[in-house]
Amino acid sequence: MNGVTVSAKVNGDAVQYVCPPDESLLDVLRNRLNLTGVKEGCGTGDCGACSITLDGRLVCSCLVLGAEAEGREIGTVEGLSEGGKLHTLQEQFIEKAALQCGICTPGFLVAAKVLLERNSNPSEEEIRYALAGNLCRCTGYDKIVRAVQSSAKIMRRGKKASR
Amino acid sequence: MPYETDYTNQGFSKVGTRVNRPDGVDKVTGRAKYGADANAAGQLVGRILRSPHAHALITKIDTSKAEKLPGVKAVLTGKDFPDLTGGDRGMMNILENCMARGRALYDGHAVAAVAAIDADTANEALKLIKVTYKQLPHVTDVDEAMKPSAPIIHDWVRTTGVTPAPTTASNVAQRTEFGHGDIDAGFAQADVIIEKSFKTEQTHQGYIEPHACLATLGPDGSGELWVTTQGHFTFRNVCASLLGLDVAKLRVTASEIGGGFGGKTHVWTEPVALQLSRRANRPVKLVMSRDEVFKATGPTSSTSVDVKIGAKRNGKITAASAELRYQSGAFPGMWAMLGAMTSFACYDLKNVKSVGFDVLVNRPKVAAYRAPSAPMAAFAVESVVDMVAAELGMDAVEFRIKNAAKKGTKASYGPVYGPIGIGPTLEAVKNHPHMKRKLGKNQGRGVACGFWFNFGGQTCTDLNIGVDGSVNLTVGTVDVGGSRASLALIAAEELGIDYEQVRVTIGDTNSLGHNDTTEGSRGTFSSGMAAIFAARDAVEVLKQRAAATWGIPVEQVVWEAGEARAKGKQNNNLPPLSLKEIAAKSPRTGGPIAGHNEVVADGAGVSFASHMCDVEVDPETGATKILRYTVVQDAGKAIHPDYVEGQFQGGAAQGIGWALNEEYVYGDDGRLQNAGFLDYRIPVCSDLPFIDTQILEIPNPNHPYGVRGVGETSIVPPLAAIGNAVSNAVGVRMDHVPMSPPRILKAIEAAQG
Lengths: 163, 753
Fold this sequence. Notes:
Chain A is α+β, with helices and mostly antiparallel strands. Chain A contains 5 helices and 5 strands, in the order ββαβββαααα.
């Protein structure tokens, strides 16, 4: 099978890869770019463990072809923290014990980040619906929702302070 | 035993605090390595071909075309796994489940495997394997499988536990019976008797991480296995035994585990991956698809249960009996036995009898699922308990309190209880603000209790102190829910040092002695116990080093608040030596300082929970919404309250899914219809409310800190609590789980006649 050459940006860095035209972006990220923080739970877009952003939009990377990423900006869990500083969501997930096994955590973090970028003060219901595409089997979602709530609060305070 | 295991009512400074987990940063940055995240130079991709039939003879497998495909390095079928079991039927069942031997026993049963240079080639090779099947009659329903006319799954199965011993084959693998007293006499005394039958459908543990491993096995018989597992030592022993390897030569490393809930206590593909690697002499990475996970791993039993309870007008139960029929998939299990043992464990009963039947069907081999078998028994029993209370005109909580087991009660499954938490959890429910919330139209409230045994088991732990005074604790139990944080707290508590000074590592099979699988809620209980003893062992060394430094007898040294102190007036001039100071001197005082412990952690305290649930049922659609949910459970001692609450909430959420949505749907053709997360719908964030928790601490007398396992009991009450709530909301007794919208509508319509 002939490979497709793709140039894209991943977490701000320019990358180039060659992949078969039918290879998922998930497989490209995990197997070609070694970004194994992106997880595969189902391969059918039902669990959200492979959530990434494509030009800022939340997608399941298992439902996107690697070839489709040409010229686009990809964001994964590996790009959340800046240098040695964790993202507020990352800090709050640890602080609020919002993970047990942790396999769904990268997807939740990416989905929650997209939510908070669009809505800095979401209600509990808005959080629950925004995260409804991400399955977690360990926590019952309780502490995940609380971590997102406290992150939103901290981030709003941060924005005010920096004004 | 050289150690004092009994509970001592000591104060704690570290245990019970809500510290950040040590693996947190790895898990929020994507660095944590799970089963599918490891790679090896030259690795091949392993894939498995599975039967599309529920039951079929495999008359021929032609692998020649697949073998000739460029890039294919190994192809295996059942004949490539010689019988090395020495007549051990249990081991043969494991082997036959990993790879069919002449007969496919369920939709999804492995019939061949390939290893190839990449996924495309491996998939292509699977298509080139030609399997000729002769379909056989199948049975997937537990009650149908018990009928004399049912197709026999295994001609060698004779029902055990019945006299005289049968001479013909049956799908009933085992009959078990528990209880005491005289139930006929008990029912004769009853003023009210309720008898009812219940069904529950098959569910899957639903861990988000599919099974995955990276296997390397050379022609010298030495191998490595990286795998997502709850029990790497058990996996090592089983794989070595099935493949004829020396146990010591197979090093198994447990990856980070993306959920297990019992489903990762069994080997499924690992022996196959190792055999592929041996054949190809290259590492083989084998990752299951979600479809394979549903079809060929670990569901729990579907069940059919009859319960009968009789009581006096004064609310005292006079007799209780149950017959429990659990299917165990295509291989014998012990699932009905566990159901029978747990069914009446919450109550103080003079006359009680429960009989379990383990039944074979053409479905995947049943695996443990969080307090395995207890939720289904509790659904039936706790529903009838509610019905009896209603018949007596008593409050359902008061009725339970009146009959609750207590210290000294002879449990229905045999032992006499020590101090237990069922009464206190019920009292907490009675007084909980949740119970005072007003209910509206189409809303109902339900309460139910649950029990789980808990397990201790073989445990081996090392504690090594670095020259800077930081501490490595190496344990052999897998961290499935935050146990590294709890174990670090325990080591810090014992040594009197900061939590941050302790790092906990899950050791591979070559760095510690055998550790039993992380099951039975034993991780923090047993490794915690071993960590306490290992730390106390290290403290003895620390005291000796201090004594040698001071030149005084060790008997004059005590360990307090993280430092050695010299006792007695004559030693007043000796300032204390901290752990750090002793560690810094260790190269000159006798070398490394370590503590070690191996223990069979007996005395896992039994665990009880009571749950409250409010629901609203839409009478038009039959859809149920959980309005409020509260868990009250006895933890013995909560080492890390956040992760104890997490276990309570997670178990409740799984129970909610089981109660309302989740079920394996089989067609008449015996094929699974919904092997994916779209059609097998587990609860999502918007389905649930916050799940309130209340931790009770009734110390386990057999653990130094009073700890009881907390992982499993939380899934036991939800089916019944929600069943009772829905029944109260719609005014019809629900007797079939899951209570999906069509089933609720049908029940309402049936009641309206």
